[in-house]
Structure formats: structure tokens, C-alpha cells
Specification:
The complex is a heterodimer of chains A (about 140) and B (about 100). By secondary structure, chain A is of the alpha/beta class. In chain A, about 20% of the residues lie in helices and about 25% in strands. The radius of gyration of chain A is 15 Å and the shape is globular. Helix content of chain B is about 25%, strand content about 20%. Chain B is of the alpha/beta class. In chain B, strands 4-3-2-1-5 form a 5-stranded parallel beta sheet. Chain B has a single domain, classed as 3-Layer(aba) Sandwich (Hypothetical Protein Ychn, Chain: A). The longest helix of chain B has 10 residues. Chain B is globular and about 35 Å long. The chains are: A alpha/beta (about 140), B alpha/beta (about 100). The interface between A and B is medium-sized, with 25 and 25 residues.
Chain lengths: ~140, ~100
């Protein structure tokens, strides 16, 4: 009997280094991917800061885990939702974030963008369609 | 009597920066550290709260979060850990808005 695949969404709402939530979320996301579920990841509120490019933690004695986000595509995590209102309030644009991609094996490994910029209303609809929500 | 006000939380997460910046007296200084540094980004809504305040931010905390100095609000002073110690010495008291 085939295992049922569920739609899992991980919601990230905290900045990367002030608390351990962002790093822990990343670990849980990667574990979830190993169980071959249909995984989406959302970044909203201060969570959008996690994807900021150019992070250099050498001066604060903490591990820079931001390069790991670029590996999500290799774990077949291809749906990364970033909320537009959260970016705007913080004076950020997509250009301030890492460019995350995945390779589509059905289209000769064509490189595709993983980040989907969505409004709060659109994100609400995506949330409504999930089976399981994890909050960090 | 001057006071150094420390804010270490994002202004988009709670009211700490709002409280600190509005309670500051003439001659007081504000230092943004850890997630507090997000308040110093010029294009962000929260930077309006810094108007009229003498503001410093921790450079290593900016770098960790990928914020380049050219993104900061006008007049914000970037310091390092030695600069932190100097500010603590220079002011009579330190108030941490935790």
C-alpha cells in the first residue's frame, strides 16, 4: 500500500541570528524532505530576513547557515513563498534576497526560480490548501 | 546625566525601539545591536523612529544579517565591540530595553 503524501508547509517568521528558530526550522525542513512529502516553505514577517544575501557572521561567532537555503532545490523543495508586504515594510526587494533555483528533470534539468513572491491574501490561499503547518 | 539606550530586538517584532526612541532625553544615545540593527535600515518603515536620536549600530551584527552600510539611515554611526565599550564608559547609565 502506497504511503499517503501530505502537503507540508513550514512557516518562517523570525530573523536569522537573534534566536535559534531559523536554523532549527531549516533542519526540520530538510528532515521533512527526506520523507518525500510535498514540502513548501514560507517566509513572512521577520522571516524574510533569513533569505538576505551577503550574510557574513565572522564578526559575531555564529555559524552562517544562509548558504544552506541554496541547497533546498537539491532536496526537491521547489516552492518557496516570500510575502510581498513583509518585504515592503522592511524596505527590501527580491534583489536583496538570495536567488534560489531548482533543476526540473522533466525539462532537461532546466533551472527554475524557487521563490514565489506572493501577497498576504495569496499566501492565505496557499496556507488553506496545506495538510500540515509547522511554525517557526 | 546621559543614558545609553540598548535595543536588541527587531522593530517589526515588538515595541522596544518605539519605546526607547520616544522616551530618550536630550544627550542620550541609542545603540542598536543583534536584531535591533534592522531598525537602522533607511528604506524600512521603522527608521522613522530614529529621527532626532543619536544612533549607533553594531557593525558585526549588520554584516551577519547581510546589511551593507550604504543601506543605513542618514547619520547612523557604525561601531565595533570597542566602540560599544566606549559608549558604555561615556554615558552615565545603560538602559537595556529587553
Amino acid at each position: 500500500m502506497a504511503e499517503e503524501t501530505k502537503k507540508f508547509m513550514y512557516i518562517n517568521r523570525k530573523a536569522p541570528y537573534g534566536t535559534i528558530y531559523a536554523w532549527e526550522a531549516l533542519e526540520v525542513v530538510l528532515i521533512g524532505a527526506a520523507f518525500e512529502q510535498d514540502v513548501s516553505v514560507a517566509f513572512m514577517d521577520d522571516g524574510v530576513y533569513q533569505l538576505a544575501k551577503g550574510q557574513d557572521t565572522s564578526g559575531i561567532g555564529m555559524k552562517n547557515f544562509s548558504p544552506t537555503y541554496a541547497a533546498l532545490g537539491d532536496f526537491e523543495i521547489t516552492k518557496i513563498y516570500v510575502e510581498k508586504e513583509s518585504l515592503e515594510e522592511r524596505g527590501l526587494t527580491l534583489d536583496d534576497l538570495q536567488h534560489l533555483v531548482w533543476e526540473d528533470e522533466d525539462e532537461d534539468w532546466a533551472e527554475k526560480d524557487s521563490i514565489r513572491l506572493v501577497s498576504r491574501a495569496e499566501l492565505g490561499e496557499v496556507l488553506a490548501g496545506q495538510d500540515v503547518l509547522f511554525n517557526f | 546625566m546621559s543614558m545609553l539606550h540598548l535595543v536588541n530586538k527587531s522593530p517589526y517584532e515588538n515595541n522596544n525601539l518605539s519605546t526607547a526612541s520616544s522616551i530618550m532625553q536630550g544627550g542620550d544615545e541609542l545603540l542598536l545591536i543583534e536584531d535591533g540593527v534592522y531598525g537602522a535600515v533607511k528604506a524600512g518603515k521603522a527608521s522613522a523612529m530614529l529621527e532626532g536620536c543619536t544612533v549607533s549600530v553594531m557593525g558585526p551584527d549588520l554584516a551577519a544579517r547581510g546589511i551593507s552600510e550604504d543601506k543605513l539611515a542618514d547619520g547612523v554611526n557604525v561601531i565595533d565591540y570597542n566602540g560599544f565599550v566606549e559608549l558604555v564608559e561615556k554615558n552615565d547609565k545603560v538602559q537595556s530595553w529587553l
